[in-house]
Each structure stands twice: as structure tokens, then as C-alpha cells.
Amino acid sequence: MTSIKRFILLFIIIYGPYVLAQNVTSAKRDTLNSIFKKSVKSLESYNYKDAIKYSSRLIDLSTLYKDDYHEFLGYDLLGTVYRKIDDSISAKANAEKALQIALECKSDSLISWSYVNLGVIYSENENTKDKGIVFFEKSVALNEKLKNEEEVYLIYINLAWSYLDLNQEDEAFKILKKANSISGNPKISRLNKEFIRFLFGRYHYQKKNYRLAKKKLISVAAVADQKAFHDLGGEVYNFLTKLYFDTGDYKNAYLSLEKTNYHDEKIFDAEKLEATEIASAKFNIREYQKDLDVALKKKKLSDELFKKTNQIKTAFIITTFVLLFALIAFFLLLNSRHKYVNKLQTKNIELTEAKEKAERLSKVKSKFFSTVSHELRTPLYGVIGISSILQEDKKLSEYTKDLNSLKFSADYLLALINDVLLLNKMDAEALKLEETPFQLNVLINSIIKSFEFSLEQNNNKLSVNIDNKVPNFLIGDSIRISQILMNLIGNAIKFNENGNVWLDVQYVEVTDEGKYKTKFIIKDDGIGIPEEKQEVIFEEFNQVVNENYSYKGTGLGLPIVKKLLDLYESDIYLKSDLGKGSEFSFFLDFKKNGNLKENMSNKSIDVIECTSENLNRDIHILVVDDNKINQKITQRILEKHYFTSSTANDGEEAILMIKEHDYDLVLMDINMPKMTGIEATLEVRKFNSKIPIIALTAVEVKEMRIKIFNSGMNDIIPKPYDVSQFLSTILKNLAK
Questions:
Q1: 456 and 593 share a domain?
Q2: Does the global pTM surpass 0.70?
Q3: 106-162: per-residue pLDDT in tens?
Q4: Does one domain contain both 545 and 447?
Q5: 454-473 per-residue burial string, b: 16 or more CB within 10 A, e: under 16
Q6: Name one Pfam family in it (predicted).
Q7: Total number of domains in the chain
């Protein structure tokens, strides 16, 4: 526990501002910084002898230069070194000297720092833990005054830990609640948050609330395994072992003990090195003292040299035997190391083979998903396209509800296929974020429009609020943002009837990198989520079951949201009460698109009525597609808007028709027999560079975008067609 605290303190020391010694010249400060960094490096590499040497040198020069800040650092580092080698008397003396300097300088940050250092030193001794708690509480008071939540959070961990060690569970619980109240701060690390959750589990265990303790500890253990938090893993599995043993679950107690050993082995090498260096440092310190004694007694020993001859011989013999035993031990260790190296090489070969096999299986799985999803999408596009056309036919107005249900079902099945494909990509780590310009209000309006039928079906109302401080023209991955919002809003609508759903987009701050930190909140007043389900719902195929709702989903939406946010290095936060609704929130950083005028931010892009009549001329479009149903759907849409169209069944036929006729535009499918759309476009561009060619594709647009544009195509329309987007894209390219 204390090692974590001291690491954070060293980080603050190294990068902390120079609050003192303003009269010290730059050259002197650079000299002191150089010595300080050598001391820190020696400490981190367990070279305590050099750490003491450099820290002492730092104190001497700081005193000479009258630099209180670096003098403080020197004493603080000496206190840390002596604490590491278990010399508590020297550790306290140096830490108290550092505190004295901080008090004289009246620096709250350094005073708080010293209090934490003394708290760590005193809390490591069972007899002085109470005094350590006093110092921690003093540091908390100062850091709360300085509004330093990150430092306060770390001190809360130390405080709660100390109270639990003293079996003062109620006091520990008060501290843990305070820590939990600021856990939403995105600057607090995931590891420190998990330590607080672990201490909650330990609290319940010591209070003999075994059910709550087991739930919390298992959850933290899963994170420790996933994130390779070995210090945390060793602690949490140790208490799980005790819990299972106390409750008579000896099988799980044994399994937890094995996990404890696993995590302990992971940190064994570092601890072994540290222990060796500690022993060496203690030996060196004793040697320094021994040399001093020898110097003082040199004259006396010279007078008694004859009397000591036998003792010297004995010491020589003993030393010889010690060296002999040391040599034997060295050869035994070398032999043991050789065996371990051979085992390691064997394990590495097995691991490499397993890795190659896993990669092969992953490629096969990815190809399977890609092929199957494309084959499933193609007939679905027929259903969606025909139902869209029928919806617009006024003669079928009495079947509007049935057609809406048909299209909704087809859209749902398509979304399910896309979710499975997306989840497969994320598992294979093949998904990368893109940065493209987009309009926030257009993106959100498009999302709202897609939920019109669902809102009407469940009689829900969707309200949207966008903070005026959030720029409308942004740069980011609009597709992934849309997937996150659609999954969260979709869940809010599906699990709510006769209720309300709110989407709130809030400005937070402009980061140091010039990005706009934005908070998204999706809230509803639906059925809510039970507390025991609030962690597992982010796992694949897990969902809330309510007897009052017949809806059964796949349980993929929230896992997809969580994994997409992981790409942004962001977390999702959940607040929910059963029967009162739920609130999901997350933070994203965006670049502002400065190439566009912000005074257009409140204007949405209207769909232009695209017809051949509006262009004042007859437009002839060639539709190239090997699927007859897709040909028919595309032609029906074009004919309805007064375009003339012809069809070609593959790339070769398309090339011949373009040579023989003067078409105004070509709609080119990508995947076709004989010759693909990309190959056909490359041939067309050899004799006709002006005719607009628009790609029609059922595969992921991101996968093909570069190949499509490099072939000479002008634009892309993804299948199934959104009629408004379909017509707008045609009009845009005809206008060119």
C-alpha cells in the first residue's frame, strides 16, 4: 500500500512547481535538479547506497545556495530511503526535518506532503498507527483547502487502510464514503478507484457481511486480472481466500489461494531485487561505521597486533569457508537458473505456437463474420428498400402501420448483424478511430429521426438539449459517436413506456491540447436497473429482465458502448434506482473544425428535393449491380423522381455500355462477378475522366474508402439506401 503512495509523491516532487528559492540562479537550480534526479533514479532502482550519497550531497549544496525547496527534497528523500531499509529512527528524523523546513517556508503543499510522509512512516508500525492517522488527517485538511482531489483520494486510501488494520471499521467506512463521493473525477486513476472498491469489500468482510464482501471482492478481482494490477490482485485474492475459508467454501478458498500466489509471483522478482538491495544498503552502512571504528582504534590495534594474530588466522579461516560456501551457493544458483531458462524457452515456444494458432483462428473468424454479414445484408437490403418504396406509395396508406412494422423489423435485424460484426472487430483489435469533420446537430437530428417509430410504438417523448458552448462543427469519429448514442438512447426507449427520454450535451472545459471536453448524459424515467445488475450489464449477453416488459434483446448494446469508449480512453458512469429510471454519462474530447463558420451551427442541412425536373434536363443514369432485386429497387427510386435509368449486370457490361452511350452518372456496385466495381472504374477512367461514378457498397465503408477513391470514384452510398441521402448524393455529383 505505501509503495503506491510514495510513487505518487515522487511524481509530484519531480514535476512540482518551484514555489520556493526564487532568488536561486538558473545554473545552480540545474545543478540541484541533476543531483536530485540521480537520487530519485537510485531510489527507484533500489540502489540505496547511492541514493543516500546523492541526497546528502543535495542537502549540502541546497544549504550553501540557500535553496529551501531542494533542501526539503533532500531530507524527504533521505527519510524515504531509511524507511525502505527499515531504519525507522533515521527515517523519522529526516522526515521531521523536512516538515520543519516546510513550516518555516509556510508552503501548504510541502507541509501536506510532509504530513503524508510521516503518516506513512508511523502507520507501518503497529504501535504507532494512531499517530500515522493523525498525520494523514492533517494532510487531508490541507489538500481539501487546496482542492487537490487526486491527492486527497490517495490519502483516503491510506486512512481507510490504517483504520481497517486497527479494526476500526466504522471510521474506515466514513473515509470510504468520502472517497466514493469524488470517484467521478476523470483524473483519478482506475487503479486507485479499484483500491477503494477493494477496501469496501474488506470492510464488509471485517463486519462479517460476507455476501456483500464476496460480491465486491470478486468484482475487483476480475478487474485486477484483466488489467494486470498484481499488487491489487494479491491483496483482493488474499481476502477472498479468508472469506471462502470462513464460510466453509474450501474449494473456492483453494482457487483463490492459487490466484494469490499467481499475483505474488508476478511481483516476486522486483521484491527480491529490493530485498537484496536493502540488505546491501544495511551492510554498507554498517561497513561505514566499522571503518570509522577501525580508524579510531588503529593505534591501539597496532599495539596489540601480536595478541590478535591468532584471531586474524581464525577470521581468515572463517572467511575462507564463507567464500567456499558462497562459491558453492553460486554454482547451485547458476545450475538452477539454467534449468529455469530451459523451462522458460520451452514455455516461450509453446506460447508462440498458441499465439500463431489463435491468430489463424482470429483471421478465419473475422473472414467468416465479414462474409456471412455481407450475405445476410444483401437480401435484407431488398426487404428494406422495397418496404421504403411501399411506404411512400399513397395507394397503400391503409397498410402504413404494417409497412412501418416490416421496415422496423428489417432495420432491427440489420442493426443486430452490424452489432455482431462490430463486436468481432473490437475483439480482434481491428477497429481504429477516425478524425473527420461533422456537424453535431445534424448527427443528433439523424439519430432522433431513426427512433421515430420506436418512440411512437412505446408512446415515449425524447427531449434534446445541446449546450451553446459546445461547437457545432467538430472533428472526430462521427460513426462511433453515433453508435454509442444510438445504443444508449435505444435502450432508454425500449425499456420505457409512456415516459420520457432526455439527451443532454454539456460543455465541460477546453483542455490543454485545445480540445473541447464534452459530457453526454442519456436519462430516462423507465424501469431502472437493480444495484446487483449495474456492473454485469456491461458484459456481453447480459441484460435486465423485468416481468412487466416483454422485450428481449441480445445484451450487446452496452458492451459495445463500453468497448467503444475504451477506444477513447473514457469511462461510462451509471446512476439508477429501480422503478425511477437510469442515467448514463460519459466524457469525450473533440477538436473544433475551424474551417467552417460557427454562425451556421444552428442551421440543419435540409434534404433537397432531387428530381430530373429541377435540373431542367433529362438525366440518364446507369445502374451497375449483379443483384436483380437491388437493380429493381434502385430503378424504382430513380423513376419515382423522374430519372431515366439503364442497368448492367457486371463491370464488363458496364464498360461497353458507357462507351456506347452518353450517361450523366453511374451507380456502381463494388462486389460483382467477372469484374468488380473498382476494376471497372479503373478501366472507365482510361477513356472517360469526367462522368461521375458513385460506389454502392454493402461492406463497411471504412474498409473500402481508400480503395474506392483511389480507383477514381467520386462518392459512396452505403446500402441500404437512406432515400434522402441517396438522392442528395446524386444531386451533389450531378451539380459538379
A1: yes
A2: no
A3: 888 888 888 888 888 888 777 888 888 888 888 888 877 777 788 888 888 888 888
A4: yes
A5: bbeebebebeeebeeebbbb
A6: Response_reg
A7: 3
